Amino acid sequence: MTFTTLEDAGKFYRNYAKAAGLSTRVWCTNRKGNEIKNQLITCSREGKWKSEISPTEKTNLIAGLNCPARIYIHTLKDVGAWIISKVVLDHSHPCCLSKAEMLKQHRKLSMSIRRTIENNEEAGIRPSKTYQSFVAAAGGHRELNFIEKDMRNYITREVRNVSEQEDAKEFGKYLLRMKEKNPNFFFELELEEDQSIKLAFWADARSRAAFEYFEDVISFDTTYNTNRYNLVCGSFVGVNHHGQSTLLGCSLMKNEEIESFKWSESMHSFFNKYITWNSSLIQFIKQYDNYLGSREQAERESDAADFHTVIPCATKSSIEAQFQDAYTHAKFREVQAQLRGKANCITRLKNSSLGYSVYEVGEQVSSSIFNKFVVTYNSVAAEVKCQCLLFESRGILCRHALSVLSFEQVSQVSPRYILERWSKKVKRRHTHIKSSHDEPLMEPRSKRFDQLVFRSQNICEFASESEELTAILHRAYDNVMAEMESLKAKRKGTSSLSHEDGNPLTSFKARQGFEQEDIQKIG
Question: Where does the record place Basic and acidic residues bias (predicted)?
Fold first, then answer.
């Protein structure tokens, strides 16, 4: 039997090995110059490992059992093809077909699996959860042709394995890409002499626009340390009109005394959710983008709820209706909580002169605690002010002030207490800007794969409606697969050297083994 390439010959033996319950490895390859002349492929249990460690003390697993099974492959110079010139089928160990899929050689991460792993890693989904999703989708561990260790090795080797300098370089490229996509993206980057990051700051266009509305209260939080490069993450955090935390900017700083930077734990839970201790800079920035996207979506959902729904008033108070009409749902609920708190308040007028009144409001906090607050009310200016300063700090009237307004029989509060900051009717510019999100830099094959998967999902969903439609799609897949294999074979020049059967294993007498005399006829 002839083969077009050395790879085809090796694949032929690997397919047999999987069917027979064993695995193989390339033992040696002979070359003449840059050209391979022949190759020896053996059973993976060939050889006998020698170790200076005493057998009684040795704990590492060994596989070598001097197994003689092997094949010899060499090139036919005049024909430009490869043949198997010698085959040894005898093994020094039993072969188990039922456990073949557990052998390392036969475990494989398909492109579909790899793309899912990469996407889940970018989304911050833990590897253990990703693996369990594969198990559930396949219908059990036995249906997968890989194990969790293979998946974790792929993540470590392909996704996370990057040097600090290379990581900083890719991080810099990310900042430049985002600036090109939107000129309002701002960043500053300072590198050390070894090209590692010393200081970085960035803010996307949406965050910068949001700052115009939410600049009144901003915290700078440096509680999270990325650890991998000893970098401290500093986040500029604001509060939007729904009372939700929103990131306005982010910085990475290298400092030898990290403890001196630690502050207010507000963003620590976010970073623990999205980032692992050994995350690279590229992973960090992807997770940061993901968080910006999730915050944008949360705001959009809350805006939609404010527009399409109404929270009913709990009382007949016209003041409550005033806030219901103006405020976002989140802030109106806070106002309602203060209105309910009026029930625990007792209001007493202490003195009054020329429209200026001083009240003492007692609040029953518990069965044994009764707090007192001084509230002043100017009926001419329609101004109320409480000693607790809730309005000054949180932007909503407190229950003590509301009690005084109720005592004064005020039906509508002054517009100064209906803050635009919490209004659901204001059209804010930043809500029309999408948060920054980098497009993944994929190799061409991965891009083509994702495009094909995306298009095929609708077809599969339509076909799954009935057995008849499913059968049509199966036939179409078979025809397309045959056409693609034919084209691939022509490009490789295999039209004259192809196997007599599409499955090379059918050349053997049985799938779990074959007789020596049959193999000697090959070639």
Answer: 512-523
Look-up of token digits 């790879």 = 7
- Interval 258-311: pLDDT, tens: 444 444 644 455 555 555 556 678 778 887 888 888 889 999 999 999 999 999
pLDDT tens profile 101-110 = 677 777 888 8
Residue 224 bridge partners (DSSP): 233
Cα–Cα distance, 247 to 290 (Å, whole number): 12
* DSSP single-letter state for residue 368: S
Closest CA to 339 of 361, 366, 316: 316
Amino acid at 397: L
Summarize pLDDT for 238-253 with one digit per residue, the tens. 999 999 988 899 888 8
pLDDT digits (tens, 9 = 90+) for 420-430: 999 999 999 99
Phi/psi at 282 (5° precision):
-65, -40
- Residue 125 — pLDDT band, cuts 50, 70, 90? confident
Residue in this structure with the two tokens 């590492």, named with its chain if needed: 60
Tell me the sheet residues that pair with 327: 423
* Side chain identity, residue 120: N
Task: Quote the CA–CA distance of 180 and 209 in Å, as a whole number.
Answer: 18
pTM of the model: 0.66
Contacts 24+ apart (CB under 8 A), 11-14: 12/84, 12/504, 13/41, 13/71, 13/84, 14/105, 14/106
> If you ran DSSP here, which 8-state letter would residue 58 be given?
-
Cα gap 278→284, rounded to integer Å? 10
Alpha carbon distance 87, 229 (integer Å): 53
> Which residues are registered as beta bridge partners of 482?
none
Beta-strand relationship, 24-32 and 35-43: antiparallel
Between CA 187 and CA 181 the distance in angstroms is 13
How many other CB atoms are there within 10 angstroms of residue 198's CB atom? 15
Q: Is 88 exposed, middle or buried (0-12, 13-18, 19+ CB in 10 A)?
A: middle
One-character DSSP codes across 191-224: E-TTS-EEEEEEE-HHHHHHHTTS-SSEEEEEEE
